[in-house]
Structure prediction request, 417 residues.
Amino acid sequence: MAQLSAILKQATGVVAARGEGVYLYDEDDRRYLDFTAGIGVTSTGHCHPKIVEAAQKQVATLIHGQYTTVMHRPLLTLVDRLGEVLPEGLDRMFFANSGSEAIEAALRLVRQATGRPNIITFHGGFHGRTVAAASLTSSGTKFRSGFAPLMAGVHVAPFPNPTHYGWSVEQATDFALKELDYLLQTLSAPNDTAAFFVEPVLGEGGYVPGNTRFFAGLRERADQYGIQLVVDEVQTGWGRTGKFWGEDHFDLKPDVLVTAKGLASGFPLSGIAASSELMAKAWPGSQGGTYGANAVACAAAIATLDVIEEEKLVENSAARGAELKDALAKVAADHPQITDVRGLGLLIGNEFRDADGNPDGKTASAAQQEAARRGLLLLTCGPWGEVVRFIPALVLDSDQVNEAARIWGEAVAAVTS
Ligand code: PMP
Prediction:
């Protein structure tokens, strides 16, 4: 009998048998409030009837219309429909399967388009696990260790992370922009720098939102030097933050937008969007793949867009997110171990620190495990695993917010008393 390798680690011991909306059921039919949503993927809830219907219909029509061989209607319709939600001017798309692959597609695009070798990323950023994506990742050594040498040509600048530095947002932003200029002057000359890769909110790095002035600073330098601004919306897109894109909070205009996760409600699909001018500078036919833009995944993505619009899920993410953040702040007020509750929409992190003010991954993990035992599934993030994150499906209602906050309060009390 074969077994799963220990290189795959799970955050909970649950064996999921079925899912419905915000709930997962295990093989004994025990119900869990799923505030992980497959790491922010199943934003329309598990097995939303409209997604199921669209996927089932597509399965019976055409499963795999390999896109470097033939075109298929779900892909063409999806591209057309994405025009409704993509930032103005970003109207050329390329599709792949995972976030990491889309990051690599963006990398190939900006290097080909600029002819420049280097990339600047921001400390705490997570962009994936393949060699190139891991090379751009600085949210934890666990994503890099034992895997070196990684790709050359990557430089890491500070992200304005107020809680990490113990500074105000203004101070952290001044520092980050000053260090970026220093880096461009001392390590990676603008003429050697193809792109900045940045998340609107650090995801795996601890649920740390960026800010408008910082992103304006990146935009300004990108425009000045012809550096491409690649915004990684893999975790923050599709309504997750209470606006359609995370960048919408910060008036941030990317040159390349990278999307995945919430895009197809659980089917593997990712993509990049850029202007026709930028895409025209890359080499035609230089990107492809066997499974990219799978027909069933594209049909599910079209249905996902419909559901988001019909059920006003972006608005619901903002409204339920505000309720959830309030409720979690109340739990934190009773427990000094939780030193910060932060995030946007339904992407909320609870940071744990010990009595000396150091990141406390041990207590965060104990609280996450205890919540799972009590029927609430959560994940951790942050370099030390010190943040417990809440990323439920956007179909969440107020009763589910209250139930989750109650279980969370009890779980935290149980592990800190
Ligand atoms: N970028 C971001 C911001 C992510 O959160 C993730 C996944 N957590 C990725 C890229 C990589 O996506 P995938 O796991 O699908 O390769």
In short: The radius of gyration is 21 Å.
